[in-house]
Amino acid sequence: MYISPLLAGEIMDLKVSDEVRRAQRAFSFAGGQRRDIGVLCLHGFTGSPAEVRPLGEYLAEQGFAVEGPLLPKHGGMPHELKGATWRSWVACARDALNALADRCSQVFMAGLSMGGLITLHLAASECYRAVCNGKPSPLRGIVVMAAPTAVNDSRARLVRFARYFVPYYYPLKGANFNDPSFRASLRQRLGIKVDELNLDDPSVQKQIVQSVRIPVGAIHELLELNRLVLRELPRVTTPALFIQGRKDRVIAPDSADVLAMRVGSQDARVVWYDNSGHALPLEPDAPAMFKTIAEFIAQHSIVQQKA
Asked: Tag placement on the chain: N or C end, fewer CB within 10 Å?
C-alpha cells in the first residue's frame, strides 16, 4: 500500500518543520497570460497537495491558473483517515473544479494515483462530458498520473471483509530500518531533520511502525472508488494523457495502458518514464513530465480570439 512521501503530523513529539506543514496545505495560483485556462491538481491517497504542488507551480509559471485542494481527512497522519469516504473526496474535487470553471473558460484536471481516479470519475460524469450548469462543458482534457487498475498487493482483495474486524493496516511493519534507502525515504516522508530521529533505537523503530497506520475502512473506500471508475471508463470521452513510471511498485504494472485502452476518448495517449516510481511529480523524471503535461494542455486549449 502506498504511503505519501510527505506525511504531516507528529511522531514521538518530533515536530514537522513549518516548511513541510505549509506544503501540506491547499494551494491556488492565479496564473498569468493563460489564466483563462485552469488546471485542477489532485493528490493521492494518504497524501496532500504537497505531492502535486511542484506540478502546480510549473503550470502557474507557464501562465495557467491552478488549484490544488486538500481532500477531506488528508494532509495529516494516515490514521486521521478514519471515517473518510470516497464520496467526500469526489465532492471536494468537484467543488474545486466548479469554482475553477467559474473563472476560467477552459479547465483541465491532473490527478495523481487516487487523484487520477477522481479525475476519471469526474470526466465520466454527465456534467463534464457534455453540458455543465446549462453550458457546454469547460473540460478540455485530463492528465492521469499513476492511477491504478488494481493495487499491487494481494491482500487488497481481503479488505472488504477485513475492515469489520481489523481496524488498521501498518504499512511499515517488517520494514528494514538498516536499509539506507529506507532510512532516507522515511526521513523524507516525516519531513524532519536527520539528527532528530535515532533510527538505530529499537524503541524508536517500534513507535514509528505503530504510529503509521491506515484505517482499513479508508482503504476499502479507495478500492470501491477504483472499482467504480473501471466501470465508468467508456464514458470518459475527453482527451486523456496517462502517465506511469517504470519503477512503480504500488499499482498494477500495466495500469496506464489498460486505462488508455478502455476509455472512450479518441485521443488517449500513454507516456512512460523509466526512472520514476509512484509519486511522479516528486520523481527524477518530473521536469520532463511537467513539460509534456504543459504541451498537452496547450494542444487541447482553444485559443481565444481578441476583439
From this structure: C
pLDDT of residue 87: 97
- Reading the block at residue 110, the C-alpha cell is 491532473
Strand partners, 162: none
Query: What is the identity of the amino acid at 33?
Result: Q
CA 243/CA 161 separation, integer angstroms: 32
What is the reported pTM? 0.86
Q: Which residues are bridge partners to 107 per DSSP?
A: 38, 139
Q: Kindly state the average pLDDT of the residues 268-292.
A: 96
Which triple of cell numbers denotes residue 282? Answer: 516528486
69-73, 171-175, 292-296, 303-307: least confidently modelled range: 303-307
Query: For residue 27, which phi and psi values (nearest 5 degrees)?
Result: -130, 155
- Residue 69, Cβ neighbours under 10 Å: how many? 23
Q: Which residues pair with 10 in a beta bridge?
A: 15
C-alpha span between 62 and 31 (Å, rounded): 8
Whether residue 6 has pLDDT greater than 90: no
Q: Which domains does the chain have, with CATH numbers?
A: 10-154+219-299 (3.40.50.1820), 172-211 (no CATH)
CB within 8 Å of 83: residues ≥ 6 apart: 73, 215, 217
Grid cell at residue 86 = 470516497
- Cell 527524477, residue located: 284
